[in-house]
Structure formats: C-alpha cells, structure tokens
Design a protein that fits this description.
One of its GO terms (biological process) is translation. The protein is mainly beta. The chain contains one helix and four strands.
Length: 55
C-alpha cells in the first residue's frame, strides 16, 4: 500500500506573471499525473494569473 506522502506529494506552484510568488499545495498523483496549473491570485501583481507546478 502506498504511503500518504507518496500518493499526495507537496508541490510548489510558481506564478507565470514573473513575480516569483509561490503557493504550496498537495496533489493526487493518481488523478493528476501531469503538471498542475491553477489560476490563483498573485498579490504582487494584484490580479489572477496561472500558477504552474515546479519540481
């Protein structure tokens, strides 16, 4: 049986706005094997931008 940390690793989401702002979250590897892309708020730019998973 897979460990909890193996199935749901902690990933960093970095802003595509070029500010270097990051969010930290967990993702399920079984349902999302690709890199995660979420649209979230960047407080440096003061608007919503895409945040991409970095390794």
């Amino acid at each position: 049986m897979a460990r909890h940390t193996d199935l749901r690793p902690i990933v960093k989401l970095r802003s595509t706005g070029g500010t270097g702002y990051t969010y930290v979250t967990r993702k399920n590897r079984r349902t999302n094997p690709d890199r995660l892309v979420l649209r979230k708020y960047d407080p440096v730019l003061r608007r919503h931008v895409d945040f991409r998973e970095e390794r």
